[in-house]
Please model this.
Amino acid sequence: MVFFSCAFAQNAPSAAPRPFSVHDLVAFDRISDPVVSPDGSRAVFALRKTDLDANKGRTHLWTVKVDGSDLHQLTNQPESDSQPRWSPDGKSVYFLSSRSGSSQVWRIELSGGEAKQVTDLPLDVNGFVLSPDGTSILLCLDVYVDLPNPADTAARLKEREARKATGRLYDAALFRHWDSWKDGRRGHLFVLPLDASGAAKPTATPIDLMNGMNADSPSKPFGGVEEITFTPDGRSVVFAAKHVGREEAWSTDHDLYVVPVDGSSTPRCLTDDNPAWDTHPVFSPDGKTLAWLAMRVPGYEADRFRILLKSWPDGPVKSLTETWDRSPAGFIWSADGKSIFATADNVGQHSLFSVDVASGAAKAIVPQGHARFPQRAGDRLLIGLDHLQSPVELYTLKPDGSDVKAITKVNAERLAAVQTGEPEQFSFKGWNDETVHVYVVKPVGFDSAKKYPVAFLIHGGPQGSFGNDFHYRWNPQTYAGAGYAAVMVDFHGSTGYGQAFCDSIQNDWGGKPLEDLKKGLEATLQRYPWMDGARVAALGASYGGYMINWIAGNWPDRFRCLVNHDGVFDTRMGYFDTEELWFPEREHGGTPWDRPESFEEHNPVNFVKNWKTPMLVIHGGNDYRVCDTHGIGAFNALQRKGIPSKFLHFPDENHWVLKPHNSILWHETVIGWLDQWCK
Model:
């Protein structure tokens, strides 16, 4: 059944002058972090523009009324400004900026004038939260936990920079994370009082609310200030942290803590009875209930988040969404506290749901597209929304999901200048005759009388999804613009189809998913006779790259060529050289010494003897999730066997390719490889 539709598509001409390409992809402006003013009349948001000369994005603040009028730029400095937050009176906006030479908090009046510096600390400020009354500010700083204040940390950093020796000595795992080596500092939360002008009091010393805790808040590498909140009375802070000592590399036990803002006592754990993940604390509008997200299975990062409710401060806890088989990614309370609005993966969409606080019943109010950043905006809601044919724009709607109105169109001109492929979604019978979904994006300028080659895209995770969103790395429109049909199967293990479907990939990386991919490709070719089944290329990253290596040895005669980005080549070694050990231990049922058969059964390196398909291998030198030795190993195997192959290495990229010119090179190399073998 084809059921793709998008009620939120922007107006665009019926014919565009050129097909979509990577040059368009990197040029789009990117909206993030919208925040609505206290009176609900206006939003401020960050807008990233690509600076190709500098080979990076530059982010500035913009503001718009919630009716879509009066859109204008608020900041315009050479350095980026980010993380906007309103003052309690709605007259000014606080934000992070490095315009002074380091990342500090600044403030600008909405009425105009120059921004004023709020903090002037010897360390970078990584994030901040204003107290409800605006009299203090909570700061996220990386410090040495054995030192009493940020100035001492700055002095130690300066001393270490002056040393001639460069060796690093570690006594615990997780000594490097994602793309950086640890230097012994932890992310701690500090409170500073603000004076009547909104600036930090110059004589005040920041109070470390996590004094002595060998833990980070927010969590690294991707956590943000959504993991932190003041209590409604402003006297305490609730935050998430993983304080587990030497088990950090193989534990997912993030807990919620509460601590007084004056630092008069140490943090008290609120969720000690849950050995799994607790995060995202949000108080109800009346301050009587604390809601947060909680997993139940220890060591499993893809377990289903439930929304828990606790009568504040010492009342009972209940699971609001126990019977809702979706995993919310973020949420807000309704103004009356009777509903919670949550976003979650949902059958190839990332929908906005309304959850009834009394019953736990959930209803999708924005079912299509990828809904983000839900905010209250007076008697309406504000969200960001993107889909396969448009980047994120801001919309408002009624709480029941009706009367959707676009309030920004920052990419309208760029969208009007390009032509994109039309997407469709359908389902087929996969492993065990269970329903599996697939997206197809037709080639730009589609003509049903022609035959088109196919780009068969395999998502990572593996607990992820190729959904109805606008992706800046794996965007099917770059293939559609190059004349390919893009096909994306959400195989067993994907998110948004219930927890059992997500869990089904464990201990079976090369089993159910491969069967789904085989059946999904065949079902797609039968459904769309204009696809040329003799000219198909398979591409994937991370777990998708693992699957490319697995396909090379276990489905070797199907594809004209393969593209493997950051893929696991040896699952056993993939345990020993990664950083987050909880992930392979959960996926494969234990450690390699306790469960060697689980690591070897679906290990691509054991099937290299069957490899024959031309492969392009790509890897980042700063990838510590899947080390670049996996890419080197795969390429060496290909070369030794005489299989046509190329290796593209980015020494300055991590698991993702983020720099604009590197993204252009990546796409041009990949499309060139596909054209060489499929056209």
User: Anything to note?
Assistant: The mean pLDDT is 97. Residues 415-678 form a domain with the Rossmann fold fold (CATH 3.40.50.1820). The chain is about 15% helix and 35% strand. Residues 395 and 406 are 4 Å apart (CA to CA).
